[in-house]
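Below is a filled-in request sheet from our internal design queue. Each sheet records the structural input a requester submitted and the sequence that came back. We keep these sheets so that new team members can see what a complete request looks like end to end.

REQUESTER: design group, bay 2
PRIORITY: normal
MODE: inverse folding
CHAIN LENGTH: 193
BACKBONE (tokenized):
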């Protein structure tokens, strides 16, 4: 039996609070990154924002393949591949994607659903709206998603990591949106073929 003088209380018995958040942020930290070309920067920013706009409730792992689905106007990121769904649960598959070590997302364009023009059109509308809203900003750094309170925990955490990564890999053309958008390769690299 433990006496009150030798018994230590755990001040954080459920592991909640700042320590787990700091550990999660440390796990998502990237090393020093080289500047990206304007086209690659814009593509990474746009497609990563697209993936992070999807709903999900799990902690994505670098290098693992995930699957984007659409159900009406909303997107969902899932661990389940298209062929693994039962027919009554299957949503419309868009593409596979994975989280890179620099905390950007890569949409695997070879897996884009070729038979679903509605999903591809929704993706194209998202890309054009994203580039249009970005064009209204003056500074790339100011437009990065530093903290979005409304997002669930892992999406908010990954947005912060994405913002940090993109800030480190700003193109050598500078921090202005106009310099970024003037590169002819930008728009062709943003939209998956």
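RETURNED SEQUENCE:
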């Amino acid at each position: 039996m433990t006496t009150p003088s030798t018994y230590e209380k755990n001040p954080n018995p459920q592991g909640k609070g700042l320590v787990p958040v700091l550990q999660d942020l440390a796990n998502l930290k990237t090393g020093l990154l080289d500047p990206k070309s304007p086209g690659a920067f814009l593509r990474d920013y746009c497609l990563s924002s697209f993936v992070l706009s999807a709903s999900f409730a799990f902690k994505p792992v670098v290098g693992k393949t995930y699957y984007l689905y659409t159900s009406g106007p909303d997107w969902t990121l899932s661990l389940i591949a298209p062929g693994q769904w039962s027919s009554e649960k299957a949503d419309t598959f868009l593409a596979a994607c994975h989280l890179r070590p620099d905390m950007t997302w890569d949409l695997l364009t070879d897996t884009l659903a070729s038979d679903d023009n509605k999903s591809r059109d929704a993706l194209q509308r998202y890309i054009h709206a994203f580039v249009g809203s970005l064009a209204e900003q003056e500074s790339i750094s100011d437009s990065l998603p530093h903290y979005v309170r409304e997002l669930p925990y892992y999406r908010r955490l990954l947005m912060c990591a994405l913002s940090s990564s993109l800030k480190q890999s700003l193109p050598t053309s500078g921090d202005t949106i106009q310099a970024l958008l003037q590169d002819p390769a930008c728009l062709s690299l943003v939209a998956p073929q």
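SHEET NOTES:
- Residues 119 and 151 are 23 Å apart (CA to CA).
- The chain has a mean pLDDT of 75.
FILED BY: M.R.
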